[in-house]
Amino acid sequence: MEIEFVLPKDIEARSFEIIGEELAQRGLEIPQDKAFLIKRAIHTTADFDYAETLYFSEDAINKAEMLLRNGADIVTDTNMALSGINKKVLESLGGQAHCFMADEDVALEARKRGITRASVSMKRASKLEKPVIFAIGNAPTALIALKELYDTENYRPAFVIGVPVGFVNVEAAKELIIATDIPCIVNRGRKGGSNVAAAICNALLYHISKDER
Questions:
Q1: Are strands 132-136 and 159-162 parallel, antiparallel or unpaired?
Q2: DSSP letter for each residue of 32-72
Q3: Backbone phi, psi, residue 61, to 5°
Q4: CA angle 82, 87, 88 (to 5 degrees)
Q5: Distance CA 158, CA 102 (A)
Q6: What CA–CA distance (Å, rounded) separates 13 from 82?
Q7: Residue 164: left (phi > 0), alpha (psi -120 to 50), or beta?
Q8: Which of 41, 62, 117, 131 is 20 to 30 Å from 11 by CA-CA measure?
Q9: pTM, rounded to two decimals
């Protein structure tokens, strides 16, 4: 293979061109209205499976973007996802990003109750007094906790990005969210990660920014 000379400012655009070319070569057709988001997930992972495994509830992108335009907050289940979200764009829309996983009182409550910090964090996030988009890239227990809050406390998340990665309860937790009426974007199967959660958030934020320029 030959080295391709690409100016630094053009690398991302060239990457997206290559993704489009390879999707065509693989015979993978993606909906045009979702292409910007699916391609960013592929761009983040170099994994073309996302063209087939990303699930979108009805009108998911419009609902997520409306929430962001109206200043919704984003809550993540890892500081890695938190750090990857473009907070400058989010804040320009009136939103903030949060992760409660490292809070001492969250860790203490989790130890006392014998549950994960992710579960406690979701309960904490449910008390925020504004709409919340949950971006879950690591902990299936976060999705399970959100479903429990939905079932037992009449708490309905404004939106869920459910892309935890792993083996234990990951697929089942994702399907729990899909089975509700909560607007969501979920990657079915075992794949995902904090980087994918952040990438989906950024895809939505950049899409809004592009529309408003």
A1: parallel
A2: GGGHHHHHHHHHHH--TTHHHHEEE-TTHHHHHHHHHHTT-
A3: -65, -45
A4: 165
A5: 24
A6: 24
A7: beta
A8: 62
A9: 0.94
**CA 194 to CA 192: how far, in whole Å?**
7
Nearest-10 Cα torsion for 113, 117, 120, 126: -170
Q: Residue length, the chain?
A: 213
- For residue 173, the tally of other CB atoms under 10 A from its CB is 23
The residues spanned by each domain of the chain are: 10-212
Active site residues: 43
> What confidence tens digit (pLDDT) does each residue in 103-147 have?
999 999 999 999 999 999 999 999 999 999 999 999 999 999 999
CATH 3.40.50.10230 fits 10-212, yes or no: yes
